[in-house]
Write a structure and sequence with these properties.
The protein has 110 residues and is mainly α. The protein has a domain at 18-85. 55% of the residues lie in helices and 0% in strands. The protein has helices at residues 21-34, 43-56, 59-86, 96-100. α1 packs across α2 and α1 crosses α3. The longest helix is centred in the middle third of the chain and has 28 residues, at 59-86.
């Protein structure tokens, strides 16, 4: 459906919350609410503070989280493209195994 409308679907790698804007927003909210914690804080206090913090969250913060993730994803995409170019055979005719031979050996193996 997305491709039919001119969009590509790109999945982010698992366990990379830094690529998910909602995770960055949630981290900000949790930090703000957590700073208000005292030994007398009740569950109802936390719920109220969460609602208040979300209500007061500036749109610019959300936008910056989206832009930050977009920037990281674009960098990763460019890196993937450059790695695909690196998969081309070397111009000198050597194989990639020959070109990297010894690059993973430890000093004791030399």
């Amino acid at each position: 459906m997305a491709r039919a409308r001119g969009h590509d679907v790109v999945y982010t790698p698992p366990h990379h919350s830094d690529l998910q804007p909602i995770e960055l927003v949630w981290s900000k909210v949790k930090g703000d609410v957590g700073e208000q914690y005292t030994v007398d804080t009740s569950f109802d206090d936390v719920r109220t503070r969460l609602a208040d913090t979300f209500d007061a969250l500036p749109q610019a913060v959300i936008w910056n989280c989206v832009e930050h993730c977009d920037s990281l994803l674009r960098e990763m995409y460019q890196l993937l493209l450059s790695n695909e170019d690196d998969d081309d055979p070397p111009a000198d005719g050597s194989s990639s195994d020959e070109a990297s031979e010894g690059s993973c050996s430890s000093d004791s193996e030399s």
